[in-house]
Amino acid sequence: MPTITFTSHLQRYFDCPVQTVSAATLAEALERVFATQPRARSYILDDQGGLRSHVAVFIDGQRATDRRHLRDTLSPDSQVHVLQALTGG
After folding, report:
1. Any idea what the Cα angle at residue 55 is, between residues 36 and 16, rounded to 5°?
2. What's phi and psi for 85, nearest 5 deg?
């Protein structure tokens, strides 16, 4: 089953330990997390259900490509990392 990890910075805003979830897509994986950690949803997703601009997700070392619908596929051994995206100039 895929493993999803949130950086320590994000864990300052909500408690979300490393989790192993049954999911075939990024959307499904995040929904499993939100079921146990509802506060995470508003920090990770915007009001349309896409990733917020300040959030980056990497699946098996590659940046997630579908920020709007979260349809990136996961394999049974995928490693998903959710972190705060750096912005600024």
Report:
1. 25
2. -75, 140
Place of tokens 């990890």: 5
User: Dihedrals φ, ψ of 27, to 5°?
Assistant: -60, -45
CB 20 within 8 A of CB 1: yes
User: The pTM is what?
Assistant: 0.90
Q: In the chain, where are the structural domains located?
A: 3-84
Q: Which CATH class is domain 3-84?
A: alpha beta
pLDDT digits (tens, 9 = 90+) for 44-82: 999 999 999 999 999 999 999 999 999 999 999 999 999
Amino acid at 36: T
For residues 66-80, one letter each, b for 16 or more C-beta atoms within 10 angstroms of the residue's C-beta and e for the rest, the string is: ebeebebebeeebeb
Partners of residue 25 on adjacent β-strands = 73
